[in-house]
Amino acid sequence: MNSHQQLEVVDLAGLIYSSGKVFNGLSTNRLDTEEFLRTGDTSKVHSRADLELLNDLRDAAQFILDHPNPNIDAHFVCNVNARLTRSAALEPGKLRRTDQRIGVDTAFGRHEPPAISLHELDQILAAAQTPTDPREQAMNLFIEIAKAQPFGDGNKRTALFVANSAVLWQPTPLMLTAPVNDNDPKLAARLNQAIARAYIHNDHRDVKALLSSAGFKRLPTNADSFRHH
């Protein structure tokens, strides 16, 4: 086993924190999030909602770490969503039904895509992974899963964690985070605006530009070194 395959959940603190902060309004700060992941200490977690969210994101991170170099298919995506048992849909891991009318209100209008089957989700995932560049695959996976809204809830979270499975196990491991800067709240707002543009206008340029410039973080090949810096 290579050293970068010895990653632990705390090594993905940037992914967990940014996902919770940008997509679900996590109020616990970055350092306290890292401390919770490292020690399990809940004394600085700000609310029960934060705790439920952090536990879900921790479980999703553990799942992708337990499955190196996975076959990123519909079954895998459903299993990632199934980890969101406390803060997402009532039926985590199950594709939504047409009658549920799941959608997202955006600045550009309402995005309410049709429900999809496992076969249709597999087709979306296969197309997203057509590029040979893992970074392109990761960005495509994030955008296309989020846009398809396959689940009753937790779609962007699921999309981001699945996307990481395309880059975590490369010779130079990468982590894809949701671009966020605690000193510049406009960055997260720009990301959500760009995602909305991808939803409504099928224009992926802005979200890919943000992910490329501010989303990817390099993980050192020695996980112990990463944890102590």
Describe the structure.
This protein is mainly α. The protein has one domain: Fido-like domain (Fic-like fold, Orthogonal Bundle), CATH 1.10.3290. Helix content is 51%, strand content 5%. The strands form 2 sheets. Strands 1-2 form a two-stranded antiparallel ribbon. It has a two-stranded antiparallel ribbon with strand order 3-4. A hairpin with a 2-residue loop joins strand 1 (104-106) and strand 2 (109-111). The protein is globular. Residues 223-229 have low confidence and may be disordered.
In brief:
The chain has 229 residues and is mostly helical. The chain has ten helices and four strands, in the order ααααββαααβααβα.
Helix content: 40-55%
Uncertain segments = 223-229
Tally of DSSP β-strands: 4
Cα radius of gyration in angstroms: 17 Å
Q: What is the number of independent domains?
A: 1
CATH topology: Fic-like fold
CATH architecture classification: Orthogonal Bundle
Nearest-integer average pLDDT = 93
Q: What is the CATH top level name?
A: Mainly Alpha
Order of helix and strand elements from N to C terminus = HHHHEEHHHEHHEH
CATH H-level homologous superfamily name: Fido-like domain
